[in-house]
From TrEMBL:
Domain Hydantoinase/oxoprolinase N-terminal: 5-180
Occurrences of domain Acetophenone carboxylase-like C-terminal (ranges): 515-677
Gene Ontology CC annotations of this record: cytosol
Gene Ontology terms describing biological process: glutathione metabolic process
Start and end residues of each Hydantoinase A/oxoprolinase domain: 203-496
Record-linked InterPro entries: ACX-like_C, ATPase_NBD, Hydant_A_N, Hydantoinase_A, Oxoprolinase-like
GO molecular function: 5-oxoprolinase (ATP-hydrolyzing) activity
Protein name per the record: Hydantoinase/oxoprolinase family protein
Length: 687
């Protein structure tokens, strides 16, 4: 018997999944321990091993980890001092940004403070031209003086980003080697390794983020590897990346910028996994946890992938208000609307929910750990949607008196009763999540109406039907073990690494010898990373794509080639693929304009993971366990409460109904019905 282990550390809960080779799962949730993430990690691991009745040494499959350690460090600015080395005369690159105002008419526009302050930004006399020609090489004496200045500054890490280094990394490589030799206790990374792409500011920003997180991520992952070995789990952990793949801990630790969206990406990949099993080509994944809610479009059973996203946005929906990161990532939208999101009254006297979260400490008022603000979880408890005595299967009793006190304070300020305040929170957070999903879809030219909503996360099944109604979704699908689906997603995700390198060239002037060299370098780098993760060369698959545009345009369209262009060298086929993708996105084609390749993309992927059903539906149709008053839809409405484990395939439940399981609860509103499908999913539809 093979046992594989997955751990997903979120902002509020840490989810643990132990998977047997027959597909059966043993799961657990524990509060995230932000002071020491490994304490919560191994506390949950010990709990799930005890439930399964096995020892740590019995874990003989993969160990996969998704974590918020990098995201938390960036948002909370917990990283140590970081230095940035740039071409002389360009020390203001992080301050000037790209001179774009994301809101032209807001006089109070805000941007996040640069991760590297002015006094830790250093210029060095060097120059590389756009064609890769090096016209000035840094002098050894200047590099030694730079090292002395960095040592005196107290910086723990250094990011190096020179002009046009994506075209020729020679100067960056020389300086990085010298600094690593002269500053042996300082982490060093270069833009030519982290983000070898055109455009100076995003490249500098991405490299800075990587350097800022390295002193946190690399020691953390090394401690994790050591601790696993000490616990008797000998496998080297695999780490989930934002792009939807997993790699070895050492590779991930050196490239922490690739881990920023690891947890949400795992959830999106799990949605794709179920789309394949259920035979659904298009759906909207909806992941609502304790801190945030995420939405992702799944097209042709695969998620959309973007080459640019932002972290630490000053305004949640304002593109351009955050720190840009140019690494491949699952394209999703994330808002501060989770179970721990705190309700408040704004300056206009209106009820708002989030983005501030109570997290795991102190948590919502109902956790009884000192939280004072009314949260979404408190509203769910007040409305009767969750049971104070059955939270986490009764292992974590909720404090109803604390919830009532928090909602009484909020209701008094609104001139409403506690129940009315709770209904307001429920409605506001549902509208916020639906609005985010609409924005995400319409910005990408996708009609979201009629798409099934695939709901998971600790709070997702509670709110999914309300969101689906606003989105005009055809159905809501709640998979087995939905509360820990992101952790499950890491176990059904193949080992994979996405790599990019810019090389601006007209399509009618492609130098295929140069293309062979660029793609060959990227493929070798990817294969080396996958070997570290335990893959053999025979198991690896290579996919090649590019970011393309019409000459003179500012933005590119990513395309994927059905065949390796190095083998076919078919320029006409490449042009046809780009033209079709451009037409689908924009509806027109300026066919008289020459095409350009801006960036090459290579995906190196391991073997696919075979599916084994995670759900074990009951053999015969069950009956409701009890009836309790619920106030979500009307006052004191008697609602039947079902245990999910009692439901059999084909059984249909008419709403209103509550379906409970240890880690989450599914709410079926009046006018809806739910059926158990052959895989064990709850499929809810509105009459």
């Amino acid at each position: 018997m093979t046992y594989s282990l997955a751990v997903d550390i979120g902002g509020t809960f840490t989810d643990i999944v132990l998977r047997k080779s027959d597909g059966s799962l043993t799961v657990d949730k524990t509060l995230t321990t932000h002071d020491d993430l490994l304490r919560g990690f191994f506390g949950g691991v010990h709990a799930v091993l005890a439930k399964a009745g096995i020892q740590a040494g019995d874990v003989n499959g993969v160990v996969v980890h998704a974590t918020t350690v990098v995201t938390n460090a960036l948002i909370e600015r917990k990283g140590p001092p970081t230095a940035l080395v740039v071409t002389e005369g360009f020390r203001d690159v992080l301050v000037i940004r790209n001179e774009h105002r994301y809101d032209m008419y807001d006089p109070q526009i805000e941007f996040p403070e640069p991760l590297v302050p002015e006094h830790l930004t250093f210029g060095l006399a060097e120059r590389t031209l756009a064609d890769g020609t090096v016209t000035r090489v840094p002098e050894e004496a200047e590099i030694e003086a730079l090292a002395a200045a960095i040592r005196a500054s107290g910086a723990h890490s250094v990011a190096i980003c020179f002009l046009n280094s994506f075209a020729n990394p020679a100067n960056e490589t020389k300086v990085a080697g010298a600094l690593a030799r002269l500053l042996q206790d300082v982490f060093v990374c270069t833009s030519s390794d982290v983000a070898p792409q055109i455009r100076e500011y995003p490249r500098a920003s991405t490299t800075t983020v990587n350097a800022y997180a390295m002193p946190i991520s690399l020691p953390y992952l090394r401690r994790l590897t050591t601790r696993l070995d000490q616990e008797g789990i000998g496998q080297t952990p695999l780490i989930m990346l934002s792009s939807g793949g997993v790699v070895g801990a050492e590779t991930a630790g050196r490239n922490p910028v690739r881990m920023i969206e690891s947890g949400p990406a795992a959830g999106a990949l799990a949605a794709c996994h179920y789309a394949e099993i259920l035979g659904i080509d298009r759906l909207m994944s909806f992941d609502m946890g304790g801190t945030t809610a995420k939405a992702c479009l799944i097209e042709n059973r695969t998620p959309l992938v973007t080459g640019l996203f932002e972290v630490d946005r000053r305004y949640r929906f304002k593109e351009g208000s955050g720190i840009p990161v140019t690494v491949p990532s699952i394209d999703l939208i994330e808002i501060g609307a989770g179970g721990g999101s705190i309700a408040r009254i704004d300056d206009l006297g209106l009820l708002k929910v989030g983005p501030d979260s109570a997290g795991s400490d102190p948590g919502p008022a109902c956790y009884g750990r000192g939280g004072q603000g009314a949260t979404v979880t408190d509203a769910d408890l007040m409305l009767g949607l969750i049971d104070a005595d059955n939270f986490l299967g009764g292992e974590m009793k909720l404090d109803r008196a604390a919830t009532e006190a928090a909602l009484t304070r909020l209701g008094s300020a609104l001139g409403a009763s506690p129940v009315q305040a709770a209904r307001g929170i429920y409605r506001v957070v549902t509208e916020a999540m639906a609005n985010a999903a609409r924005s995400h879809a319409t910005d990408r030219g996708v009609d979201y109406r009629g798409l099934p909503l695939f709901a998971f996360g600790g709070a997702g099944p509670l709110h999914a039907c309300g969101v689906a109604e606003l989105l005009q979704s055809s159905s809501v699908i709640v998979p087995p073990q939905s509360s820990v689906l992101s952790a499950f997603g890491t176990l059904v995700t193949p080992v994979r690494l996405d790599l990019v390198r810019s090389d601006l060239v007209r399509l009618d002037a492609v130098d295929w010898a140069r293309v062979e060299r660029i793609l060959g370098d990227l493929e070798r780098e990817g294969r080396a990373a996958l070997r570290e993760a335990g893959c053999t060369d025979a198991e690896m698959r290579i996919r090649i794509g590019a970011d393309m545009r019409y000459s003179g345009q500012q933005n590119e369209v990513p395309v994927t080639f059905a065949e390796d262009p190095r083998r076919t060298r078919d320029v006409a086929a490449i042009a046809a693929i780009f033209a079709e993708d451009y037409r689908v996105l924009y509806g027109v084609n300026p066919s008289h304009v020459p095409m350009e390749i801006v960036t090459w993309r290579v995906v190196v992927e391991g073997p696919p993971i075979r599916f084994h059903a995670a759900g074990r539906p009951a053999a015969a149709a069950g009956e409701p366990r009890r009836v309790r008053p619920v106030h979500a839809w009307q006052d004191d409405q008697p609602v039947a409460v079902w245990n999910r484990a009692d439901l059999a395939v084909g059984q249909t439940i008419e709403g209103p109904a509550i379906i409970e399981e240890r880690e989450t609860t599914t709410a079926i509103p009046p006018g809806w019905s739910a059926t158990i499908d052959p895989v064990g999913c709850i499929v809810a539809t509105k009459a």
